[in-house]
Structures are given as C-alpha cells and as structure tokens.
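The records we work with from here on pair a chain with its fold. The integers have meaning only within a learned vocabulary of local backbone shapes. A complete example follows; check for yourself that the lines match position by position.

:::
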Amino acid sequence: MSAGEEKKFVMKHVFKKYPNWDGNYYGPKEEHFGVPWRIRILKKSEFEFVYLDCLKLEKDHFWSIRTKIDNKALNEKHKDRTRNHSFYNDHKSYNAFSENSRLREYLIDGKLTVDFEIEMIEMSGIEIPKVRKFDDDVAKEFSDIVLSTGSQKFYVNKMYLSLHSTYFKSLFLGNFEESEKSIIELKDIDPYYFQKFLEVLYGEAAITDDCVSGILKLADMYDSKTTTERCQEFLIHKSEHLLRDKFHVAVKYNLEELKKKCFSELKTAKDCHSILPDTPSQFSYELWEELFSKAIRVPN
C-alpha cells in the first residue's frame, strides 16, 4: 500500500446504554479495504474491555494486517493513545481499553462513544474484492495497453481512457516515450484505489465512504471529470461522512455542488464552527468571506 492519508479509515460507534451486566456488546459490522471490522465492549465482573475486532475468517493460508490505531475517544488523557498493532489468523482483536470500572468516566449524557482512526500500514495474504476485473481473459482480449501499479496489471483500452482523462490522452497519444510501450508503469499509485478508479470510470457502482477520497485523488491527478462527478454525486446523496469531512473534500477538489449542499446544511453558528480548518491558510480569503457571511445570518 502506498503512502498517504487515504490508507486511513474511521470506526466510530455510540453505545447508548452503559453495559450493566456481564457479556459482549457490539457495534455494527463495517467493511474497509475488503475486510470486516467491529467495535466490541466486554464486561466481565469488575473489569471492562474495549476491542476493535477484525472479523476476517480464518483460511488455509496465512494473512496479516499491520496497523497504527489512534484511540481518539478513549484514553484521550493519555499520551500513548496511538499504538501499532498487527491482526492475523489467530490474533484478530485489538484491546483498546482495559481498566477497572473506568468506562463511566467517558460517559456523555449516559452514552459511551468509541472512536478509532486506523491506518493500514501493510496487508499480506488478503485479496481485495473487485467489482470488475481488469486482468481476466475478457479484459485482455479487448485491451491494447497494460497499466502496471505495484505488482498488479490492468488491461485497458487506450481510446476509452483517453475520452475520460486528459492525462491518459496525452500519455497515449502524445510524443512521449511511454506512448510506444505496451506496458506502462504508474509509479507511486496504490493498486487498490486505481482498481476503484477504473471501476467507477467504467460505470460500476464501486464508490463507498471508505474509498471515495482515494478515487477523488486519482480523478484529480488524471483530470477525469466523469469520475469526479460520480464521486460528487455519491458524497451529496449517499455518503455518511461528517459534514466537516465532506466540506473539506469539496474545497480540496473544487466540488461546487457539494460545497453548496454543505452550506445549505449550516443551520446554526455551531454548525459553521464545526467545519473550520485546523489552520486558516487551508481556506482561501473568498471562502472565509462566504463562511463569515453565512455565520452572521444563522442563529446561535
């Protein structure tokens, strides 16, 4: 997997009732990078544990996932809330919290929020599910160029990619050394997101909250308006990302319709404050003017 923030995903669940009896309490199962995950609380006598479970089934071959986990909601008072952890066949849970009856300290209005940010450092022995294959016999038959990323090869059509990407149009039809090659290596591109980018470009319903940022990054890099528009439609109509996250994506990739949608959801001054950046330079002067104008028109 290549470097970049798109390797990260968030697992968050609000337990609306504090666990009053011994047993397991589960959050919903979510799939990220082709692997199912779940947050779990185990109450056992006077002890309480909070786990991040990897629900990948055991198979004949060995698999492993190396991660860095930021325990954002719990242990926020401690400096060591970020830890490295490896999941594999017979070691599929990360113990994020194990204290003697201290979960009550983290209750807000009687609810317990568990919030992890997980960075995928390395995966091995795991095949990520594909909506469409770009390396089977059909793809090879109709392909006239092979794009290589990492150890994966994608058999595609020059004309189709050229119609939907000015980058590939220049690469295939311009006066470049690569134009004469039958196999072109795309350096520093994560094959997972390139697979998803191609799936969207070919009309597949492959966009999820897990991969939309990675697809948008490639759509911007390759100047693919079709892919960008499909990502924007997903973020407007289907995404469950927080308003702040969607607004920052809209600003980063100039998604005007998404930005308008986010502005329409700013109902209070608190909403306006929630989307502010970590540093002022992240927003342009014009955008700050828009935000200020909006903030003075909405109730506190």
About this structure: Residues 1-5 have pLDDT under 50 and may be disordered. The radius of gyration is 22 Å. The first strand starts at residue 8 and ends at 15.
